[in-house]
Amino acid sequence: MQRLSFFLSGIVALGAAGYSADTLPRPDPAFQGKIDPSRDKSSPDWPQRTSARNGAPSVVLILLDDMGFGATATFGGPVPTPALDQFAKSGLRYNRFHVNSLCSPTRAALLSGRNDHEIGTVVEGSSGYPGYNSIWPKSAVFIAEVLKQNGYSTAAFGKWHNTPVWETNPAGPFVKDGRVTYEVNAFGNRAGTIIASEPLAGGKARIVLDFDPDQASLQKDPLPNRSVGPGVARLTVNGKPAGEAAIANFGGFYGETLDIGSDLGSPVSPAYDSPFAFTGHIETVTLELR
Amino acid sequence: MRNKSVLKALTSTLLIATSAILSLHAQQTQPYQGVVGRTLAQSKEWWPEPVKAPAGAPNVVWVLLDDVGFGAAATFGGLIQTPTFDTLANNGLRYTNFHTTAICAPTRAALLTGRNSASVHMSGFAHTILSAGFPGWDGRIPSSAGTIAEILRENGYNTFAVGKYGVTPDEDATDAGPFDRWPTGKGFDHFFGFLGSQTDQYKPDLVEDQAHARPDGRHFSDQITDKAISYVDRQKKAAPNRPFFLYYAPAATHAPHQVDQYWSDQYKGKFDKGWDAYREEVFERQKKLGLIPADAILPDRNPDIKAWDQLSTGEKRLYARFMEVYAGYLTYTDFEVGRLINHLKEINQLDNTLVFIMIGDNGASKEGTLNGDIDRPLLGKNLSEEENITYNLNKIGEIGTSAATEGNYPLGWAQAANTPFKFWKTDANSEGGTHNPLIVFYPKGIKDKGGIRTQYSHVIDILPTTLDLVGVKVPEQIKGIKQAAIEGTSLAYSIDDAKAPSRHTLQYYYIFGSRSIYHDGWKAELAYPNSMITGNAQSNRPFDENAWELYNLNEDYTERIDLAKKYPEKLAELKALFEDQAQSHNLYPYITWDDVMNGRIHRTKDSKSFVDAIKDLGKGDSSQ
Description:
The structure holds 2 protein chains of 2 kinds.
Chain A: H1 5-15, H2 82-89, H3 103-112, H4 116-119, H5 143-148, E1 180-184, E2 204-211, H6 215-220, E3 231-237, E4 240-247, E5 256-263, E6 270-273, E7 282-289
Antiparallel strand pairs in A: 1-7, 2-5, 2-7, 3-4, 3-6
Chain B: H1 2-20, H2 26-29, E1 59-64, H3 83-90, E2 93-99, H4 104-113, H5 148-153, E3 158-164, E4 190-194, E5 207-208, E6 211-212, H6 220-238, E7 244-249, H7 261-264, H8 274-288, H9 313-346, E8 353-358, H10 385-394, H11 411-417, H12 431-434, E9 435-441, E10 451-453, E11 457-458, H13 462-470, E12 477-478, E13 481-482, H14 492-495, E14 506-511, E15 514-519, E16 522-526, H15 531-534, E17 549-552, H16 568-584, H17 593-597, H18 610-617, H19 620-623
Parallel strand pairs in B: 1-7, 1-8, 2-10, 2-11, 3-4, 3-7
Antiparallel strand pairs in B: 2-9, 4-5, 5-6, 8-9, 12-13, 14-15, 15-16, 16-17
Helix pairs in contact in B: 6-9, 8-11
């Protein structure tokens, strides 16, 4: 049976030091030169880094999201996928490959080479058991760490979905590229109203919702029921509906962006109406004009 | 499935070893305390306790300025206004006997690790031409010397660094890394600044986290302050109860001295009386403020420095302008620190913040040479003094502007900025190189507000002091790597006790030939004359390894009376102690400026001459 763990084993074997028993990070190497008070009588030695095996290939891992076996033309489906065809033509098609039937478990298994319950995902559906708490154990190192410490540069793009929801802190405010971000202070649970601290100029509004990841409240209730939706987020301007956006059925709202798609008059005091039920605490709502 | 078990078997050694020694990660070491049954109904949930800082642990801010002498800031008697430092010192403590290593990278490495620079491989720099393949010299801080950021992060702090870093090897400072010796690899959640030693204030060689970034044209100090504030705000918004550690290290007041005219204009005419008058006035102020002993005597001018009265009118005009710009540059730096401090006050964090202000990572710089420098590289064409003065006078309007890419004041002013001490940055033999002001501000932890502390202290003491005051222990291991002992001495004992005897009683110093050893008030020292650094070929004296001097700092605070001939046994005892320290801290072999300039260290097939290589140090400036 072909499973995800192939990936980790295959990549490590291709790229780096293989399976040699090793401890990462490696301790600093011992000095092999000679030391004397006089420089002339000393001989230098430099701590060497582990570099990738000579000719080690670069590795690109592409993972698509929510796609069935029969979708792509490459595997007989109706949707033309010429780029994938190209890969398959000059490579191999594996037709008995399996994933975990859900996103974050698949990702955890893929990156770690271990079964998903050893990592403890699903992220939003976590509960206080070792197989489910979404706290990636330090004992399950993942591919990037191993390759990085074997001479690779590593980068990840796109969806991650393997960080406990209370650790994905909001990164805002975002003030860059000429965009103006208005920050509005917290309002309480459930439906609420926010008042912008400055008049908003005209433009398209974007609303960013963040839960309060304060560790203290998580201590009391480490995993409040964050399953919400489906629902609708509404932007109200001067008491009149100014736009709305559907919220899909999902768990956390960390940094979730809702495009309201409304033109705001100027100046306005926007209000945010949140009719859907949730028990988390919203700390800030950011209105970003674009 | 067979493949899976093979994988497990093959990697288990690695993984078990890794997990067993992660003693810092509380999450991983707590045994599971819930009940796991077959169904949810038969089970009981349990969550590991998240890593948290000690209850009420304060935020920590370390401010480290660059190239500022003891007698520059008004807070320590100087004639350059530093109102933010005044306020912090008047509500905190002035430490008047604090020391650095006499040059930048060794000070920074020692500060971040709480260990001596040689012990953490940074006797020189992390620059290719200033490092050598020996444990004390390779410029690669070992993982057995964890930094303050690694320790605090693993104890529930967010960790931020902005400004100059200065201890990443040149070879690693590219966008390909590796990044383990970048700030983010040494425990900082975020970094915004530059990795090298010197950078243009308006076109800095900017890095954000793990990639080079484009500067926006504002002054570097302005940018890093904004970034520091945004790091703090973002953290407090997400986790209001979690403390942060911020390492704020502006490029100021290192060369190039560049600052908006608004700041330098405030000093118009203020330095026309010259550097001799400055020294005398500052010396009296320092006595009046109780910062130096009442019986201290101001040493004579350093050799090669002319009396101000003997300078030509043109020289006076030129040099006074250099100092106006320098003073504006320092006052502006104080202003930026003030923006940060005021912000912490506005968000109600200042009362629970522990602030260390180190005014200089070494004494005032002598890289400005005898006549000051506007845009001539350190090792540019050797002009005579007269040519140099004419050249600078023709460009006097450019001093302090963005065109002053190498802006630095002349040696006479650097000496004055080191009042009451002799000599300069890089002179590890002299207090002028190593003696810097330290302010500790901690509203909830300091009762004697505005007090003065005279205990001998060194930059390696800041880490253990910090950990002591926030209630965090030094870990035995970090990421499985056994940690070497901290070599600094916590100053916590002196916070409430002005009269406590010094606990840091022994300290060696060594920078490329110049060296000294301090022990219980006595100090033996050996200078290493070097024309490259003074920029004055005429003053080049040969190095004499027997020219040790001996001073009793308890009676002779400013190192005026050499007792080497009077007490040869004392000198011999201290010299032996120095050898002992050198050996035990991996300082051997003794590498000197001559070795550096003649390319006797770090030779590779691509080795460039020293002159060519040093030009590369600032190349980031032009690549933007």
